[in-house]
Fold this sequence. Notes:
- The complex is a heterotrimer of chains A (226), B (103) and C (266).
- Chain A has helices at 8-12, 22-31, 35-49, 58-61, 66-77, 83-94, 109-117, 136-139, 159-162, 174-185, 207-218, and one strand spanning 50-51.
- Chain A has 226 residues and is mainly alpha-helical.
- The longest helix of chain A is centred in the N-terminal third of the chain and has 15 residues, at 35-49.
- Chain B is mainly beta.
- Chain B has one domain: Sandwich (Immunoglobulin-like), CATH 2.60.40.10.
- Helices cover 0% and strands 50% of the residues of chain B.
- Chain B has strands spanning 6-12, 15-21, 44-51, 54-60, 70-76, 83-90, 95-101.
- In chain B, the strands form two sheets. In chain B, strands 4-3-6-7 form a four-stranded antiparallel beta sheet, with no helix packed on it. Chain B has a three-stranded antiparallel beta sheet with strand order 1-2-5, with no helix packed on it.
- In chain C, the strands form three sheets. A three-stranded mixed beta sheet of chain C has the order 6-5-8. A two-stranded antiparallel ribbon of chain C has the order 1-2. A two-stranded antiparallel sheet of chain C has the order 3-4.
- In chain C, a hairpin with a 4-residue loop joins strand 5 and strand 6.
- Classes of the chains: A mainly alpha (226), B mainly beta (103), C mainly alpha (266).
- Chains in contact: A-C, B-C.
- Chains A and C meet through helix 2, helix 3, strand 1, helix 4 and helix 5 of A and helix 7, helix 8, strand 3, strand 7 and helix 10 of C.
Amino acid sequence: MTRKNTLRFSLAFSAAGLVLAGCAGSMQQGAGMTPAELDALTQKVVKESFRDKGIVKVSQAFADDPTTRACDASDVAGQPLSAERAKEIEALNMKTIRWPADGKYLGDWKEGEKIAQSGRGRTWTDKAGAANGGNCYNCHQITKEEISFGTIGPSLYNYGKIRGVTDPNSPQTLEIVKYTWGKIWNSKAYNACSNMPRAGHAGILDENQVRHIVALLLDPKSPVNR
Amino acid sequence: MADPMRIRAQASGGNATVRVLMAHEMETGQRKDASGKTIPAWFIQEVTASLNGKPVLTAEWGPAVSKNPFMQFTVKGAKAGDKIAVTWKDNRGDTRTDEATVS
Amino acid sequence: MRKTTLCAVLALAAFAPHAWAQKSTSDGIAEYREMLQDGNPAELFEAKGEDLWKQKRGPRKASLERCDLGKGPGVVKGAFVELPRYFADTGKVQDLESRLVTCMSQLQGIDPKEVIDGAWGKGERANVTALATWVGSQSKDMKFNLPQSQQQERAFYEVGKRLFFQRGGSHDFSCASCHGEEGKRIRLQDLPHLSGKAEDGVGFAAWPAYRVSSGEMWTMQHRLNDCYRQQRFPEPIYASDATIALGVYLGVNARGTKSAVPAIKR
């Protein structure tokens, strides 16, 4: 573990393509290890520190994913992705979106509210096969009535109203409807390093559940738009 | 034997303020465990306090009092060096008494 | 009796509208927490921890009074605010809980597996929690001052930083997803910005703490374990290097801020 590295400069441009800000560089100089070595040490620590529990498997949780790998590196370096790289990742994620087979984007907003309120599922204390929640209120304001909302994501109150959606089934609103569906299915198709989980793509929510949430946001009768 | 209480008694003016922290599960009897079985009620029913052996407080508690309960009260006429004793009795018949000196 | 009740009702009626009009939800929660500070049940765990430190236990029937927490054998005051740190005898960077496990093993002959493979709130793991609460309390209001003089300590800072920003699990959550920005909250729970400027008594400076909602005493190991559970990660092994490296990252970031341990939480 303790190695002075005189080839620090050349090794700084590692296979991961990391470019380091000045501050980060001086901290790592103190550690006596190159960024690549520190990355490798981190992966070794992860391998030795976590174990399968309940329905959560190490192999799945830490599976290699180009999206998260790029966004993690950007966070550690303190530098956002280049516009080019961001577009590449967004395109990658866009390909994964499954649009509704029957072309029906909206479901029942009342069911959508229940799904938005629930944070259940996918932790090691949850059971396999149980319906997952959307976790939505943890990060977003949605209806006016619910005061227990988080602020990690933007407010979604009046989501449909603000976008002038009076008839979600008309051809004029199809683009907005599709954007809403797509964002819930895979948020990173529109914002490469979005904090929002990729609910459809990760199998957290199924087609029916996504329909209900789209209705919660876009149905003019939904409390979100009243 | 249950874990000891933490008792602090502070004299001020002609009185003493007594603060007691009790270690007790205080199960209401309403909760169910992971398998769906009701967890039996287990809570403090009576609390008494004395000043130099003379009773000064009696309290009747029920399942509404929370786990590891905290109680604060003022005793008239207590001064530094006096002994405060607090006793609790629960619905299982367990009991615990702890003492503190007024500072 | 009736007179007092009437007076009390009138007083409440006069007071209530004015107070509520001015108080925000955050203020109300802060007031509630202040009321809970007096009579923090953490004191029960402190008392237990102090007893365990002095009691002769284990196959070797020895106390922990010669345990070296980083400032020399038996020195407890100020130890908490310098952990995690490097220990020459084990050749590892260790946090408070793992160092207590080392001492329990070396001095008392208690098998570390009893803690590492144990359950929260039971057996030897519960004893470590009580000990950690007491040791932490002996540094209350002192400023964090983790050493970074050893190469391993500096390397673990970097590892901890990478872990903080590492996304994983079905929801792509990293620590930074919730703790990487200023002024955010989940539902109504304010979130400390752990990769930013640290504050007194917040984040790393607030654990071990008593959690009123579950009536449990939680150490930093417990807090990290539950964070990872909610992140949909697999379980971090008790006192594993990942948890210690995160402690180094958070603790070094908290340098100069005051410890509030043992604290009280919702």
